[in-house]
Amino acid sequence: MDLITSRTMEITKLGMDGLMDRQHAIASNIANVMTPGYQRKEVAFESQLSEIMEKEDLKDYIKSQNSIEYKPPMVDVFTGEIHTYRTPTLQEKAYLKSNTYEDFKPQYVTDIYSGTDATGNNVELEREMMDLSKTGMRYLVLSNLERRSFESVSRVISGQ
């Protein structure tokens, strides 16, 4: 595993990008709380992150089931079974080389299900402030995770 481009760092970066987009949408909602006819916006990205993690898990599984370098067959000392390794198929190699992170695009969605007031506006300031707080806390958690990853890399580099 490459320490600089580890999966944790990639996923936290994408999560932080999605949360930043969500913060922008919430800020827009708050700014338009009194705008007649304004429909609140939301940002959805969690299912995309989940899908990316599943694809990365599949890559890890393919890597564990295959060996690109030659390894002689191993004989299990206890059972006598011969364990052989195989090389990945062309499709598996192409899948392993694909970049699953580049498809990440947070989706801006207009909330048409919330009730509107007399002016047609459906922004509730209390709800937006709560969402702003939750999003900020999630961002803080991910940034702490990212910081710890960089601290680990720093310790490895400095030989600690």
Structure description:
By secondary structure, this protein is mainly α. It has one domain (about 5-160). Helix content is about 55%, strand content about 10%. It has four helices and four strands; from the N terminus they run H-E-H-E-E-H-E-H. The strands form two sheets. A two-stranded antiparallel ribbon has the order 1-4. A two-stranded antiparallel sheet has the order 2-3. A hairpin with a 6-residue loop joins strand 2 and strand 3 (about 80-85). Helix 1 (about 5-30) packs antiparallel against helix 2 and helix 1 packs antiparallel against helix 4 (about 125-160). The longest helix is centred in the last third of the chain and has 34 residues, at about 125-160. The model has no long low-confidence stretch (mean pLDDT about 85).
Brief synopsis:
The chain has 160 residues and is mainly alpha-helical. Helix content is 54%, strand content 8%.
